[in-house]
Structure formats: C-alpha cells, structure tokens
Amino acid sequence: MEETLTVQPARLHELIQDKLIQAGLKETHADTVAEHLVFADACGIHSHGAVRVDYYAERIAKGGVTLDPQITFERTGASTGIVHGDNGVGQYVALRALEYAIDQAKESGAAIVGVKRISHCGALSYYVKRAAEENLIAISMCQSDPMVVPFGGSENYFGTNPIAFAAPRENGAPVVFDMATTVQAWGKILDARSKNQDIPDTWAVDANGRPTTNPHEVNGLLPMAGPKGFGLMMMVDVLSGMLLGLPFGKNVSSMYSDLTEKRNLGQLFILIDPKRFTDLPSFKHSIETMIEELHDIAPATGFNQVYYPGETNQVKYDKYMTEGIPVAKQVLDYLESDTIHFDQYGKTGSFATK
C-alpha cells in the first residue's frame, strides 16, 4: 500500500499552484484550481484533489486548455443565462459562472445558468457550498466522458455525470451532498491506482465486461443502483449537455485519449433564493432541526452515529484544514518534482519544467 504523508493546506496549495504555472497556466487561474483541489482533499474527496494535477498539467502543457479564455455571459432571460467558457481551465470558468448565477438568483429569486465549453471542473461540492454560503439553495451537475457501462449493456456510453446539492443552515457549514451517478467516480480509480490499492468488485468492469478489483484493469464503471443510476446519468447529460447544444453520451470528448484537444464540456447551475418562498431564518432553522433529528436517531449495529448526507466530508474538512491533509507519497513526490510526467494515463515520457 502506498505511503501517505500529511501536508499543511497552505503548502499543498503552493505546490499545486506552482506545478500548474510551470505547465503554462496563468497565476490567477492556477490559484483558483489549487484552492479547489485543496478543498477536495481536505473533504476527503481525494479522487478530485491533488491526484488530478498530473493530468491537468499535461493537458495544459499540450494545449488542451485555453490559457487566456475569453469568458462571456449571455443573459437569455430574467433567470437564465449561458456562460461561454472558451475551454478555459474548468475550475476558473465554473467559478466565474457561479458568480453570475449568484448575482442573478439574488436579483430574480432563481437562476439557471449553463456553462458551455469548459474543461474538467472538479468537485461540484465546492461550487454549491459557496452558493449556500450566500444563503442560496444550489444544485449543479456536469457531463463527463463515456466511461460507464449502461444497465444491461456491455459498452461504455454515459459518463459518471455527477450531481451536487447544498442548502444553508442555522448553525455551522451548509449541508452539502455531492455524488457521481456511478457506484464510484473515476477519480476513485485514479486514487486507488496512486495508492496501489484494490477496489471492490462492485465498482467497475474490465475490457471483457467482468467485475474487477484491479484499478489498472478498469475499462468501464457501473451505474449506481442499476437502472436508477442509469436514469440519473441520462438526466444529467440532457440538462448539462444536450440543453446547451453540446455533444452528449458517447460523443462527449475523452478525458485521456487526446490531451491536445479542447474538452467542450457542459455544466449547469440551478440556484434558488429561499426568501422568495419562505422566511429565511425559519428555513435555516428547519434544516438545523432536521440535522438534530437525524443525529438523535439510534445508530444501527456497526455505526456510531447517523450523519446527514455529506456530513462526513465536512468533518474531515474541519480536521484536515487544522491538522494537515493526507496525500499519497507518490502524488506529493510528483508535486515536489521539477518535471511534468505523463505515465499515469497509459502514456510514457516526461519533460522538464525548470
């Protein structure tokens, strides 16, 4: 099993930002990506944290990300709009889109903002949490490349197509729930590879369509809850891809096959101002009461407590941001190196960045 080291958040941010700048990303954009990846690692979502830097750096260096994107906002109605991302680095474009959506929701009571032509945007929980900190209810979803075997099928068609939700509460951090529509996200496979760990045989299948525990043999992921997850991933593709006139299903660009090409992905934000429907303090108190009632439920055998969905990520965040974030030694060695290497994704070779 790969050794894990503890890194202070500020140091991890610095290492990630420096590596992305070395690859060619603008400092302000690299800073945004680094903040996002540190957030993911601090939440225990290591599949969307520092393990992604190797891939991002390679795509940036090879021209698969627009380094100086011309980001524009097209307002299409009182509560609707489209952000044209010009295939800039995903986290930066998505954050700009979220800012437009927040302003629109506060003005109109709700906002539905699509993001066209964006690269991989990372963990959706980052965005919905920020919206909930502005006293808004937030939903976000995005496309990903075809790596999921549909229920009853033997070939990949949809992506992991995640969905995230957040709501403000009376006390403490917002309630945040973020999930892939697969049993596990592809980043979990990358995380297992980086740590040389086996995966459960319910996560994925190999090239022959058979369940596998070897993360290096994964050819396709499995939808969560069979046909239900299959239906959800179709819904996400319709709302974040087809709705924006973008490629969908098996036509969505691959994350790893050609890193010189732009991704042209889609993302959707749906924000609601609860003040337009109910009294805000009462709403936030109701969320708090729900949490307390869940905590008061007697735990089942083998459990210490009932947590609300996503709560364990917040518990880890509070702990890791204070005590330091666990990072796989292999990932940390890469971040501290002077090269951008690209063998993690089935490629070979490296080139110096200093």
Structural class: alpha+beta
Number of strands: 13
Contiguous low-pLDDT stretches (5 residues minimum) are 344-354
Beta-strand proportion: 15-25%
Rg, Cα atoms, Å = 20 Å
Walkthrough of the structure:
By secondary structure, this protein is of the alpha+beta class. It has helices at 9-23, 27-42, 53-61, 90-108, 125-132, 186-194, 227-240, 280-296, 311-323, 329-336; strands at residues 4-7, 72-75, 80-84, 110-118, 137-142, 163-167, 175-179, 204-205, 220-221, 265-272, 325-328, 339-341, 350-352. The strands form four sheets. The chain has a seven-stranded mixed sheet, sandwiched between helices. Strands 1-11 form a two-stranded antiparallel sheet. A two-stranded antiparallel sheet has the order 8-9. Strand 12 (339-341) and strand 13 (350-352) form a beta hairpin. The chain is globular. The relative contact order is 0.18.
Provide a compact summary of the structure.
It is an enzyme of class 1 (oxidoreductase). The protein is of the alpha+beta class and 354 residues long.
Which secondary structure elements does this structure contain, and how are they paired or packed?
Layout: E1 4-7, H1 9-23, H2 27-42, H3 53-61, E2 72-75, E3 80-84, H4 90-108, E4 110-118, H5 125-132, E5 137-142, E6 163-167, E7 175-179, H6 186-194, E8 204-205, E9 220-221, H7 227-240, E10 265-272, H8 280-296, H9 311-323, E11 325-328, H10 329-336, E12 339-341, E13 350-352
Parallel strand pairs: 3-4
Antiparallel strand pairs: 1-11, 2-3, 4-10, 5-6, 5-10, 6-7, 8-9, 12-13
Keywords: Oxidoreductase
Protein name: Ureidoglycolate dehydrogenase
EC number: 1.1.1.154
